[in-house]
């Protein structure tokens, strides 16, 4: 029996049907379209069985599948090593084209090159699209074509290009839904993928407070954040819709979205920064890397309430307020002199919005080792940060219920830690 010729759209970090660039183009391939998601063993094998992000991905896929079922289609879910999965799909289906949206992380680039080679060997055309960002790797550069390594000139060039182009195009896929293949693929239980449901939940995003984002964003007790970051990470919202909206509503919020793209292009242009200091001059810093100190930081028992509240919020919910992230990161790298890579790895394990580019970029910023980083002699005082941004202790008491019963003494004196950090950095920076 002759197999039906089909095209595939490969979902990765773009888990939505609306305003999805690659999906929009794939639905016009001329062949029935099979939507696919692969639970990649290379990514999953290091995760705990109750990882909250896997639960969120699963729920997002289930939502897509329910929408597809209304038009007598379905989502094909596979699990395994991506290379092996694609070989089995090529054997099972008469695939004409494969469409997907670009990913700019080192592993994804390597994976996509390997899969593209396999597809080409089997006479299958593959097409990739920009969807995760407004401007990708080489679209915002200096006049000499080199990437920006300082945020402000990058932002200015980004805004100039965005305004010249008009708002980012949004893609209406719904009129093309009739081009999905008529299929009834079974949707697996989460347990069949090897995971169990997490008690930690990704919250719905909320833009109602963004109008006064600039005024309230630094105060963790006000809960004035959007909760957008996990949705951006996994693509359940469109960056184009969001940027166009932010450009109309709030420029401060737009600047935060541009920071995200800045770090993505830094990671693409300088992939070594994942495991190395962006500034090699900082390679001589003698980190203390005391494991007991690190455990106290992880558990939120340092004796500094702002630090401890942040770490407890992270451990219990997978979220941490951005202002607090800066305080806890500075404390680890400078008060405790623990290598930023330890903190980056812990955040990667716990954060619902973990994105490699932003996580590495922000940790190196806090440590002073990254591009456009905080200077090494800036050492946040956690007590002053608490007085400025949680003066009444509302945030602290939420996450430290025992706070008023007589809280722990700080594990290290701030003045001593500050002087030690500055001296250690001075001695370690390679001239």
From TrEMBL:
Q: What is its EC number?
A: 4.1.99.3
Q: Which UniProt keywords apply?
A: Chromophore, FAD, Flavoprotein, Lyase
Q: Does the keyword Manganese apply?
A: no
**Assigned protein family:** Belongs to the DNA photolyase family.
Q: What is this protein called?
A: Cryptochrome/photolyase family protein
Q: Which SUPFAM superfamilies match?
A: Cryptochrome/photolyase FAD-binding domain, Cryptochrome/photolyase, N-terminal domain
Q: Reply yes or no: does the keyword Protein biosynthesis apply.
A: no
Q: Which GO terms describe its molecular function?
A: deoxyribodipyrimidine photo-lyase activity
Q: Per its UniProt record, what InterPro entries does this chain match? A: Crypto/Photolyase_FAD-like_sf, Crypto/Photolyase_N_sf, Cryptochr/Photolyase_FAD-bd, Cryptochrome/DNA_photolyase_1, DNA_photolyase_1_CS_C, DNA_photolyase_N, Rossmann-like_a/b/a_fold
Instruction: List each copy of the Photolyase/cryptochrome alpha/beta domain by range.
Output: 5-134
Q: Which cofactor does it need?
A: FAD; (6R)-5,10-methylene-5,6,7,8-tetrahydrofolate
Q: Which Pfam families match?
A: DNA_photolyase, FAD_binding_7
């Amino acid at each position: 029996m002759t197999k039906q010729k089909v095209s595939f759209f490969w979902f990765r970090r773009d888990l939505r049907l609306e305003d999805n660039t690659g999906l929009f183009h794939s639905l016009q391939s001329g062949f029935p379209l099979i939507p696919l998601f692969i639970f990649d063993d290379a990514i999953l094998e290091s995760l705990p069985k109750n990882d909250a992000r896997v639960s969120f991905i699963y729920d997002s896929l289930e939502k897509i599948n329910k929408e597809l079922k209304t038009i007598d289609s379905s989502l094909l879910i596979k699990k395994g090593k991506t290379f092996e999965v694609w070989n089995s799909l090529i054997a099972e289906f008469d695939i004409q084209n494969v469409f997907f949206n670009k990913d700019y992380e080192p592993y994804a680039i390597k994976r996509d090159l390997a899969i593209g080679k396999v597809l080409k060997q089997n006479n299958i055309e593959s097409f990739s699209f920009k969807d995760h960002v407004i401007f990708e790797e080489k679209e915002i550069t200096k006049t000499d074509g080199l990437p920006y390594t300082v945020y402000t000139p990058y932002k200015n060039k980004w805004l100039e290009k965005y305004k010249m182009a008009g708002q980012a195009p949004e893609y209406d896929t719904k009129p093309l839904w009739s081009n999905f293949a008529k299929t009834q693929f079974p949707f697996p239980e989460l347990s069949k993928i090897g995971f169990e449901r997490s008690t930690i939940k990704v919250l719905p995003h909320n833009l109602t407070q963004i109008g006064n984002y600039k005024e309230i964003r630094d105060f963790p007790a006000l809960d004035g954040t959007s909760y957008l970051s996990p949705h951006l990470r996994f693509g359940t919202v469109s960056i184009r819709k969001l940027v166009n909206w932010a450009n109309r509503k709030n420029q401060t919020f737009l600047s935060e979205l541009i920071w995200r793209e800045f770090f993505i292009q830094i990671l693409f242009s300088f992939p070594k920064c994942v495991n190395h200091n962006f500034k090699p001059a900082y390679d001589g810093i003698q980190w203390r890397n005391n494991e007991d100190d690190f455990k106290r930081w992880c558990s939120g028992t340092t004796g500094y309430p702002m630090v401890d509240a942040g770490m407890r919020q992270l451990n219990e919910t997978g979220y941490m307020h951005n202002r607090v992230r800066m305080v806890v990161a500075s404390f680890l790298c400078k008060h405790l002199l623990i290598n930023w890579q330890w903190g980056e790895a812990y955040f990667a394990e716990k954060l619902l919005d973990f994105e490699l580019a932003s996580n590495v970029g922000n940790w190196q910023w806090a440590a002073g080792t990254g591009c456009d980083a905080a200077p090494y002699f800036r050492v946040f005082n956690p007590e002053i940060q608490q007085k400025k941004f949680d003066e009444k202790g509302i945030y602290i008491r939420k996450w430290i219920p025992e706070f008023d019963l007589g809280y722990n003494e700080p594990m290290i004196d701030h003045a001593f830690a500050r002087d030690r950090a500055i001296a250690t950095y001075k001695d370690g920076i390679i001239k």
